[in-house]
């Protein structure tokens, strides 16, 4: 009986995304393109970079945490510029090299020429919240 329940659950997990029923945890995702970070920083904005890959399970876990935190506190999205850097497209680009980004699933908060902090492959809610709070406090 447990095997049947497992097989039904597994089939559901496979079918739901293909039906388009799975929600993107970051539907408001703004993707990086060359110049967008520099422009935002020059305008005095605090930038929160998410070095992400669609196939990365750690990135997905980070997305879920950030989406929940943004839902709890809309000021994050209102005052901080969140930019997703697609690792497959820009993992070897100047943006990643200049910031010494070691891998996808790296989160970095920037203000002007200053790095406010970073998380590499971390998914702990408290750590991500602390970095987002640091960015939010710098944006005020």
Automatic annotation (TrEMBL):
> Can the keyword Oxidoreductase be found in this entry's annotation?
no
- Sorted alphabetically, which keywords does the UniProt record give? Signal
On the tree of life, the source organism's domain of life is Bacteria
Q: Which residues form the Thioredoxin domain?
A: 20-140
Q: Where is the signal peptide?
A: 1-22
* Protein's name in the database: Thioredoxin
């Amino acid at each position: 009986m447990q095997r049947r329940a497992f097989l039904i659950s597994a089939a559901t997990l496979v079918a739901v995304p293909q039906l388009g029923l799975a929600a993107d945890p970051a539907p408001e995702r703004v993707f990086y393109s060359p110049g967008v970070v520099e422009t935002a920083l020059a305008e005095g904005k605090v930038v929160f970079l998410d070095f992400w890959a669609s196939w990365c399970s750690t990135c997905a876990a980070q997305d879920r945490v950030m989406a929940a935190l943004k839902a709890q506190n809309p000021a994050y999205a209102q005052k901080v510029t969140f930019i997703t850097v697609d690792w497959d497209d820009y993992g070897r680009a100047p943006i990643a090299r200049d910031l010494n980004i070691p891998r996808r699933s790296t989160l970095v908060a920037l203000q002007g020429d200053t790095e406010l902090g970073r998380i590499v492959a971390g998914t702990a809610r408290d750590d991500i919240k602390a970095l987002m709070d640091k960015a939010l406090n710098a944006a005020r």
